[in-house]
Amino acid sequence: MASLPSVAVPGTIKLDLDFKKSSQTSLSTHKNSSIFNAKTDPRCLDFREALSMIEEGSKVETAFYVPILQECIDRNSVSEAQIIHTHIIKTGSYEDSFLTTFLVNVYAKCGEMGYARKVFENFPQRNIVTWTTLMTGYVYNSMPELAIKVFQEMLESGVYPTNYTIGAVISACSFMSSIRFGKQIHGYIIKYKLDCDTSTGNALCSFYSKCGKFGAAVKAFRRIKEKNVISWTTAISACGDNGRANMGLKLFVEMLSEDAGPNDFTLTSILSLCCLLHAVGFGEQVHSFSIKLGFEPNILIRTSFMYLYLKCGRIDESRRLFDGIEDISLVTWNAMIAGYAQMTDHAKDSLMAHHSGTEALNIFLRLMRSNMKPDLYTFSSVLTVCSSLIALEQGEQVHAQTIKTGFLSDVVVGSSLVNMYNKCGSIERATKAFVEMPTRTLISWTSMITGFSQHGRTRQALDLFEDMRLAGVRPNKITFVGVLSACSHAGKVDEAMRYFEMMKKQYGIKPMMDHYSCLIDMYVRLGRLKEAFELIEKMDIEPNEFVWSLLIAGCRSLKNMELGFYAAERLLELKPKDTEAYALLLNMYLAEGRWNDVSRVRKLMREEGRGKLMDWSSINIKDKVYSFKPDGRSHHQSAEIYALLEDLLEKAKSLGYVSLRCLEMDDEDVVKEKTVSSTVHHSEKLAVAFGLLNVSSGAPIRVIKSISMCRDCHSIIKFISELTGREIIIRDSRRLHQFNNGHCSCGDFSNLL
DNA sequence: CGCTCATAAT
């Protein structure tokens, strides 16, 4: 199991505090209703019956329309709304501003802003609520610019906004991420002294958070004099959205100490923070706390707990919760699939990761067999699982399901498909999926650019980047990681620098470590160690473990041990969290015969509580997963596997293969003796040989490896791909290696162990 | 005005 990030949990929750449940909790939504006569109250009638009463034509009370119009919104039925609309006009209820405003709302919620606008235009008695409803409608239908325009019209016509209006305008600003306009609105709010009003303050806090201005969001929150549950919940989610999950937990504790009772929204927000932090201990406290407050029956909260436990590897507890839910909704299924998928991400060096991936696929199958219809969340999660398992066949089946259910055209599902095909090594199918997408987002473009880059297709990656800019999509920092890594692959220093400058100047993106890593990787690949080192010294960020590892890998290949040893000391000072960093150092010191350093690193590893490197590989053949450990002989085909490897090694030697000294991964005690002399069969070699024996001829071999490949295996597999004419794809913990005719898509100079 | 499940990386 991978070590989880350590979390400084802010104190513990005092469980003896006895909160009253907030009145706003949606657990107590039971509204008092029975003043109406059952015969004329449409809530007691069938929707059709109520409608036909209207079609008969007699005038009815305003209150009669309300539930039917509400029903129109819930059913998203425009035609029924039009029937009621006609009736309202015919009977003269049109002058009722409440009803007319409601009609604007109905059309807006049904996505018919044209109709909504018409109702508004034809209604001279429009009041502030009508204006606000129209604006809210535009925001609801993703037209924030029009909402702002309406706001300006309104001010010009001399109508003064209420805090509801301001709320709508601010959501429009959030939608556009328009800091400039939002600040103008903020100025307006201060001018009219609306600032401390609770709902306005909440909206402002949410706005600044969505624009990434966390500091301003917190300030807005702090200025609210009378904070309600929504204020606290908004501030807590703001922490999560801005990478400050820990502070969110602190706010929660503060909230409790101020006697503010959380509701179900607050709890789900807190749980998503716990997920981000893997703070399962904190989550457990919240769990018992929430039971005490009576949130137990709430299925969404139960689902959130289930998801948290699963994501943190507490499979049993999670399953108990899952099994306890009688009426499993799609959200619960999805959370279960996503939970297993996320576990895959965080348990890379364990076989458990693989099992959780296959378990996620099983859950997906169960879902499909039940009568539930999957949605975009189901598909994106399950496609992620296929990616991490490089399960191309299963991925194709899911692809077929997206077509069958009509989700193929969804942009998130489409992006997930592109990503899945890329990760499975099929750049052709990824390209096809990308081209066929009806709409694309930043993420779709970035996925495809990165895909080209990973497959060593630099020109296509850069061309696509230009296409993306021409299409008017603004690249973000991750897009630039893709672009710079593409340049790095091809050794295009000038272009890399040009894009790096473009990123800073034209797009105002502050370089982060990942961008520097690409540049350093580029210099190292070109053998320009000095420039790589100078860049490290020059950066305005503290170099991290990864950067030093890159340099060390370069120094080893180019035999610049002086710089290599220097970099090693810097790396050791950081007390790396990543076990692979220690393995890299051990490999280097072993190769140089520096036994003192070997034991020094070993000691530090023990002190830091870093375990051994777990090397395992797995291969997926026809719905079955086969796993291999290094030098494993327990497999029933072991004899054939070893014979094949021996044969291939001999042939490779005649083609010029020279074995490189390498660390034995799984067994510390024999390292000294064996590394220098005999060949070590790391797990991927066994998996590849097994694949050669069992995968139908001509088909690519796809292997997943728990840790980085070592230089020796990387070299021999290049020869194997040449000797057998097979395409071999190995996804290790760092990147995708696609071997074809003696070449690898990583361009060879990756920081192998 | 707040919420759970989702897609991109060296």
TrEMBL record:
InterPro entries: DYW_dom, E_motif, PPR_At4g14850-like_plant, PPR_rpt, TPR-like_helical_dom_sf. This is DYW domain-containing protein. PPR repeats lie at residues 127-161, 228-262, 441-475, 476-506, 578-612. Residues 669-749 form the DYW domain. GO terms for biological process: RNA modification. PROSITE patterns: PPR. The keyword Repeat applies. GO terms for molecular function: RNA binding; zinc ion binding. Keywords: Repeat.
